Amino acid sequence: MPEPVGGGVITATTPRPDECATLWCAGLRKCYGERLAVDDVSFSIGARECYGLLGPNGAGKTTTISMLCGLTPPDEGQISIDGHEGGSLEAKQVVGYVPQDLALYPDLSATENLTFFGQLYGLTGKVLEGRIRETLELVGLAERRKDRIGTYSGGMKRRANMAAGLLHRPKLLVLDEPTVGVDPQSRNAILETVGALGVAVLYTTHYMEEASKLCDRIGIIDDGRLVAEGTAAGLISAHGGRDKVHLDCDASRLDELADACRRLDNVHDVREVGEHLELTTDHGPAVLPTVVAVAAARNVELTGVEVRSPNLEDVFLRLTGKELRD
Q1: Which of 35, 41, 74, 202 is least buried, going by the fewest C-beta atoms within 10 A?
Q2: Which of the following CATH numbers is that of domain 21-94+170-238: 3.30.70.20, 3.50.50.60, 3.40.190.10, 3.40.50.300?
């Protein structure tokens, strides 16, 4: 797929099939009645790449995933998974889908659940037993393999859910919000597992820090269209905006300090926000010593100083205008 222009802007060119990509899709479109749910979505995922698909509720993520997994046929577009046509039995066999909702039987143990799912993939005997040991070890549940899923914590259930999706050694693992509603320790365990997989991963999440930490590239989808794509750093550079410097001081001195800061080089905007000043600059840490010196020269005591650089959430809000909600 062509590199995004400017570190994160999607080009209008439809990508050509990439023989090195585990997943390749182009021009995906899906309508439900008069509602266009997915509109000309194209991207690819390399063999060991983790690709994050972010978007507000109703943006088209679920429909896109359903088409890629062969659960919903696209109205238009092409899909290739490990060289197989999307929707074919061969393509479905190389996809591991881990849905947001738990797909396990609570009255069965982890081993019994994985035995059932493994048999659906045609695994039997020693091969199946070996895969079950392998996947439970990977997700950190080997010691609880005989316990009923219903006795697991929320995070353990999520990890067992992931084990079911990994059992057949898929070429592409689709993780749909795998850490929703789990405690921080379980979330870290899940993230460590994802990072150690070594397979192509399509990852959706409502946690920006997860996407920044895990994903090699990120696509942001809104109103059915992929509006930006790139690395987290590239997206922030292209769309994140400038640094913000927040200054707190005696309210009676705010106007005086604001006037002084407006005269400084590399300060593009100064606003009074509540009871503090907000300075907009290209590089907050670099301008901060000058700001502190200006305040000291006027005997203005700064009671609080904070430099905030743009992050992936700023990019998301700038591009979609919507908060990412659970």
Answers
A1: 35
A2: 3.40.50.300
